Amino acid sequence: MYNILVCDDDKEIVNAIEIYLSKEGYKIFKAYNGKEALEIMGKEEIHLVILDIMMPKMDGMTTASKIRETKTVPIIMLSAKSEDYDKVAGLNNGADDYVTKPFNPVELIARVNSQIRRYTSLGSFQKKEEGTIYQTGDLIINDDTKQVEVEGREIKLTPTEYNILKFLTKNKGKVYSINQIYENVWEDEAYGADNIIAVHIRHIREKIEINPKEPKYLKVIWGIGYKIEKLEEEPKHAKNIK
Amino acid sequence: MQKTSNKYAALIRIICYILIPLAIFSILKSIVSIWYYEQEDTSVKEYNFFESKQFANLYKESIINNVGVSYEKEVQDEYQHLGEVTSIVQNDKYTLYIPNYYDVVESDVQGQKIYYKNYLQNKNLKFLIIDNKTKEAITNVSQTLSTDTTEEIKNELNNYSYFWSYEQGKVNTNISLLSLENIAYQSPYTDLKQYDCTIYTGIQDPLQYKDYYYNYKILHDNVFPIYEIAIITLIINIILIFLYMILITTYAGKKRGKQEIELDVLDKIPYEFVLAFLFFATGIALILIDNFQGMRINEIDFIGIIIIGIIAIYYVVGMLFYLTTVKRIKTHTLLKNTIIYRIYKLIQKVVNNISNNISLSLELAIVIIGYSLILLFSGFLSIALGPIMLLFILGLCGVMFYWSFQYLKKLKKIKETIKELYEGNTQVHLDESQYTGELKQLCIYLNDIAGGLQTAINKSLKSERMKTELITNVSHDIKTPLTSIINYVDLLKKEKMPNKKAEEYLTILDQKSQRLKHLTEDLVEASKASSGSIKLNMEKLDVKELIKQVSGEFEDKLKEKKLDLLLNLPEENVTITADSRYLYRVIENLYSNIVKYALPKSRVYVDVLLEQEIVEINLKNISKEKLNISAEELMERFVRGESSRNTEGSGLGLSIAQSLTELQQGTFQIYLDGDLFKVILKFKRKQ
Predict the structure, then answer these.
(1) What was the pLDDT predicted at B82?
(2) How does strand B564-568 pair with strand B603-610?
(3) At B46, is the secondary structure helix, strand, or coil?
(4) Please, where in chain A does CATH 3.40.50.2300 lie?
(5) Which residues of A touch B (CB under 8 A)?
(6) Rounded to whole angstroms, how far apart are CA atoms A51 and A111?
């Protein structure tokens, strides 16, 4: 059983999160401001923290920084601020993920599960699997077994989707246009106005991403092409050990 | 420090006024001494005046000047007036003339004239001249001698302290420089040997009269002993004069207890008058000195005093002139306090007054008529005065040309400023003081318009920004309770509902809370896009690729509504410069608009058209509802293609798309034709 600390000054939101996450089998600790959160962090063994940003007494940013001084537990920021720079600020202050209010409960649960998996059991996959491996971050493709795993979840893809994902992951960080992908995956000359690739990409995104509209792995560069983000095959929270 | 020294300003000035003439005197003395020393024999230290070259020169000149021969008529004329001869003695073998001072005596010998001038200036020189042919003799040896025989006079002269005589080709003298042996010095003998005459001359030491000899002796006695220190004295005194002048310059106009320079009556007189007075005074002084010098008065001392007096008065005038000039420069009134400047100012004022109060056309008319009159007048004058007037006319043409050029330049500047304003730069400003008359009015109006526009723009920008901020903040506040609503509706959906109706109500709650969510998100985006407070990251991208990508994203949704998407893309690449994310937002908004409002089972056309410079994206669909409003109304925020607001959209989609397109330098147009709904996007093509 994993312990999750939920901290928000809106009691109803905390309660709702508690209901959702309890159903998933997590034990919930509740705090209503940053100071209470830090107190609980000191007393209990916490495996994940969900933090609101705008709170009385001590805000989420400060709290996240304080937690990061001693702990490496995953932190998910929860905020009504949806601007890009708010997200960047949150991530810079030690958060691992950022969810905007009003959030989709399913998405929140998925993100919590993902972070918990990462925090507790990551690294075992690589050891037990052998063969030709393509990887970026927590997206791992085993070309021998044709298996795809994202953050511990196994993903089922069609052969075409698999080939596209494999091609992009093999060349992670590089941007490919629809025609380039077609030529490389189909090994045929691309002709005509074809949006089949775009449809496939969307399907892959919907399968591997928690929120397909804000993808973490398979990014769309509108008007230019697609790419698999080059993510560090980092140990847990390596970015916080500066 | 400045104050305490001001205390003694007047005293310092007075001391300087007194010391300056002393220094000048010292300088003059030093110069004379140096000059004098250069002329004399430098090997002799103690030098008697009567042994000096100066004395020898004077003596020689006296003899030559006093005794001479003239063939020329002019010289004869000059001496035509014979002075009164005091006495003629004939008790001797010669006829002895004893003339008054400054008289001329002449004797006619075969057309030659031996004449004698008894100069007042040479009174100390005594002489006896005998014309051997005519047996006439002239002397200035005291007329009171009872025995007026030439022999006696001869003897007396030969007994004088210094003498020089010429008799039968022989020179007899005790002045070594003038002896016959001293060929280098050219004895007066050279000039005299052509005459058949005998000359006896002599000078007594000490000198008896105050004449040239006397003056030169005083000069000699004064300057000769100091020649050794003359150069040092000269340098020191020059430095001293500089010092005094600096002091006077510094303290000019300073008064006890006052920091600023005080101008008195003299300083308020126009500078031209002061200059004129100085010239006048200089002229008077020069004329007076000249006249007094030439005046034949016995008392040289008296004339000297008068000349010194004139110089002293002139010195005072000069110093006053210097002081007032310094004060004027210090108070920056040297040029301002002149008649020319006052006249210039007056003319300027009059011209300004006239040109400020009359219209441009009248101003032009006056200038042209005035100019023509001057030209006409000059034309008449040029007949009389010729080339000078022609130059004047040319100058006038130059002035006229310059004036017109300046005027046109100003006009052009105003035009350019207006153009700049027209092109949207509201920061323009013209310096009104550089313009006159109607042009000035034009400038004032222009500046007012520019200022007004700028203020209006600033105001509206500020209010837009504040509006965006307000909307963002309010949306944050709405989002928190909305989160709870959505979450608990979601939780409620998982509970068992008591009846069908409750379930129905819950569905409505779910729909409305979701719509509220979209609405808040769109609201923030719309206000940001319209106020321009979005940071764009412009880059090159391919419109073809984008359309394919978005079409892929929407394929399922389009299929759901049974919409048939027909893409018409050109073969070549279609590159434009835009922000990838925001251009996607535009296309995405238009696609979701199509999904929401297009007639199911109809065709949707997306065309990318290429022109030379422009990329056009056309999206066409058939509306499922009747479009009974205009395109303009459709663009207004919160207006949608159907009257009811039951569907999920916020009605902000088109407005956001338009704002974002315009932010990326594109154009956004909507055409409605019956049920045909058409959006045309245009961007500049990048090669």
Answers:
(1) 45
(2) parallel
(3) coil
(4) 3-121
(5) 10, 12-13, 16-17, 19-20, 54, 80-82, 101-103, 105, 177-178, 193-202, 220-225
(6) 14
CB B13 within 8 A of CB B248: yes
Looking at residue A130, what is its pLDDT?
Answer: 63
In this structure, what token pair is assigned to residue B653?
């989609």
Q: Over chain B, what is the mean pLDDT?
A: 78
Answer yes or no: is pLDDT of B76 > 50: no
Task: Report the CATH number of the A126-228 domain.
Answer: 1.10.10.10
Q: Check residue B680 and give its pLDDT.
A: 93
pLDDT in tens, B465-512: 888 888 888 888 888 899 999 999 999 988 888 888 988 999 999 988
d(CA B627, CA B621): 12
Hey, which residues does B165 pair with through a beta bridge? B172, B200
Q: What φ, ψ does residue B68 adopt, rounded to 5°? A: -160, 175
Rounded to whole angstroms, the Cα distance separating B548 from A176 reads: 14
Backbone Cα Rg of chain B: 57
Write down the pLDDT at residue A193.
47
Q: How far, in Å, CA of A193 to CA of A170, rounded?
A: 26
B608 touches chain A (CB under 8 A): no
3-state secondary structure B417-470: HHHHHHCCCCCCCCCHHHCCHHHHHHHHHHHHHHHHHHHHHHHHHHHHHHHHHH
Residues 6+ apart with CB under 8 A from B600: B561, B562, B563, B624
Question: What amino acid occupies position B275?
Answer: L
Chain B: closest CA distance from residue A130 (Å)? 35
CB B435 within 8 A of CB B443: yes
Q: Give B137-162 pLDDT, tens digit per residue.
A: 777 776 555 556 777 778 888 888 88
Say whether B543 and A223 touch across the interface (CB within 8 A): yes
Q: Domain locations in chain B?
A: 1-257, 341-421, 534-684
Kindly state the percentage of chain B with pLDDT values over 90. 10
Average pLDDT score over residue span B405-413:
85
Cα(A38)–Cα(A36) distance, integer angstroms: 5
CATH 1.10.10.10 location in chain A: 126-228
CATH number for B534-684 (one of 3.40.30.10, 3.40.50.720, 3.30.2130.30, 3.30.565.10): it is 3.30.565.10
Q: How far apart are CA B436 and CA B407, in angstroms?
A: 10
Mean pLDDT of B205-232: 79
- How many angstroms separate the CA of residue B629 from the nearest CA in chain A? 33
- Calpha distance B90→B64 (Å, rounded): 27
Amino acid found at B639: V
List the Cα angle B538/B540/B546 in 5-degree steps.
100
Annotation: CATH topology of A3-121: Rossmann fold (3.40.50)
Looking at chain B, the whole-number percentage of residues with pLDDT higher than 70 is: 80
pLDDT of residue B471: 86
Q: How does strand B197-203 pair with strand B538-542?
A: unpaired
Query: Which of B477, B486, B581 lies at the smallest CB-CB distance from A222?
Result: B581
